[in-house]
Specification:
single chain; alpha/beta; eight-stranded mixed sheet; four-stranded antiparallel sheet; 26 helices; 12 strands; 58% helix; 10% strand; globular
Amino acid sequence: MSDPSPMARWCRVLFVATILAGSFLLFLVQPMVARMALPRLGGAPAVWNSAMLVYQALLLGGYAYAHWLGRVKPRAQAVIHLGVLAVAALWLPIGLFALDLPADAQPAVWVPWLLGLSIGPLFFAVSAQAPLIQRWFSASSGGADPYALYAASNLGSFAGLIAYPLVVEPLLAIHGQSLLWTAGYAVLVLLVALCATRLPRTASAEHIAATSPAPGAARILHWIALALVPSGLMLATSTYITTDIVAMPLLWVLPLGLYLLSFTIAFAQDRTLADLLTRIAPVTILLFGGVIMGGFNDKPVFSATIALTLLFMVSVALHTAMYRRRPAPDQLTGFYLAMSVGGVLGGVFAALLAPVIFDWTYEYPLLILAAGVLVPQMYLMATFRAVWSGPAVRRHLGLAAIILVMAVAAGLRISNPDGILGDQHQGAAFLIVAAIGLATLGARLPYVVVLASTLVMFGGYRALELSAERGARERSYFGVYTVRDGEGVRELDHGTTVHGIQLRGSPARERTPTTYYVAGSGVGQAMLALGPLYGPAARVGVVGLGTGTLSCYARPGEQWRFYEIDPAVVRIARDTGQFSYLSRCLPDPVIRIGDARIALAGERTASLDLLALDAFSSDTVPMHLMTREAFATYGRVISRNGLLLVHISNRYIDLEPVVAAAAREAGWHAVHLLYRPSPLDADHPSPSDWIALSRDPRAIALLRQRNSGWEPIVARDGMAAWTDDYSTILPLLKGLW
């Protein structure tokens, strides 16, 4: 076969560049717009999942448009599409639509509405690029296979995602990012116009390639299923890692980036890596699925790494299976349309239905199980092939033996946690299950039985027990809350992070502040100084209700109000009777439900003497509550000699330089108290780091007079305050391992 001519090579380079540019812009804009929305919608992981669902719906619309466009002649397609790109350009430069959101705005409703108005036309126009340009390439090259270009498309998408948190966000403010994207869009339109010049003038759309039989319903449903599972698992993984670490673009993009990278491998012309990863995917699903369900709450970064690896392997395997069942190029747009339908259905299941149907993240193990059902299987050894592909009697006996062994193992683990297969010997249990699972590779039904048993044994049964226990768990748009009883205590967890512990027993015990709020903590010391600082009628605001622990510092005559974004937390702390802090210490609390920053913006000037900022999305303060604009709001609401307490305890990010920079710019005096409890303390104290800020140096001096542990904070050289327009956490990351 002769080498392609220079013109043919130029044509291929042009189309690849166009696809790369379009995909790069498409997936650069996703974290960019989500970052723009942080100050208005908050930083809960579900906000990102809702945004992803909007993107998937717009992508489906773009793919449907590209499929419809295939009915007209190639040159007419170019005219129509360039017109669509021109109309979409009216939404440039990118910015959020001007909507006044209420304080109790629900992200499930407002995210789709706000994002659809802000970038809907642009995203729709650019999302059609991948299938449309591939079809144009096939037409201009005389019917060459265009599927390899889809690998280039997803490589561009992956590059756009990674470029945002690593390059674009640290270097450019939001306005600069928007201008950069606008310039990229202009380049993209030029590239599309150049591609249009390569289209044949007379060929009709149906003659772009040889006509092939239309795919049957079963094949289309298989495409949809193969696309649905990785899409849903990607969102479930996003919820998992951003809940346990921090909701920020750097972690938002990791699951989506790996998901996109899997397409690059699965659709590549060189099949070596795709085939290798597909062969080992069943083993990965079995072992890593068990590890994830077993849980390593004390090693969240390790667990996140396992979850991301599992997502990547599942995505490569199922997308490779989809590639192997791809149609001829003349059916290309229909194939991508089915893929997009599957992606949207996966998003609807993980982002919309699961939080309503389930009280725990059951979608995660269910999607892992579905991946096991769909993943291509290969026999590990000839002996196993003989068992599972032999006579029916032998297969049935083998399946019965597998079911019996797994039932006995599950029974021993569940009924005897201290036994040989219990929690005390989890490693041995993993090895036994792994050995059994390896013997079933290649035989789908026995393999699925082992996988399902593994998911139940290593955590699934605990989840089911808690679901059966009335009031033990509640799920909302913002996460999963679990109430656990221990010896003399009751605990509230959000994900794997403790959000409150109450001592049980006598009324005095139940009124005792615990964890981050004990008397020796920074906020405890500030609360004990309320009387000397502000008298008997002190006005106190608390951002973040939790279990209501801080209410037990309230004294008669003081005015308290709480700001809580999640109604589920309010029900747990006030209405269910599971925690009695509020009922014993502040029976009729004022609680503002909604995003605290929006709610505080509506409060009267100088209406608080002390404001405690204790809003956490699992383990960290949401970024939009730490910006210069947010601190300006706090400064307006707090009296001139008032105190602002900021809780910055965090396993992964050093937030002190952020607060120090904001304090320096706004003229606040600031000190911090790093509290480390004694092992002899009986009130369940937790290590904590609180910063106290005031514009009146006398308030800070009184705190230091009462406790010498308060130390001045020092601004980091070159560290500017975060703003709604610019922030980055890269310089603040602690050692994660």
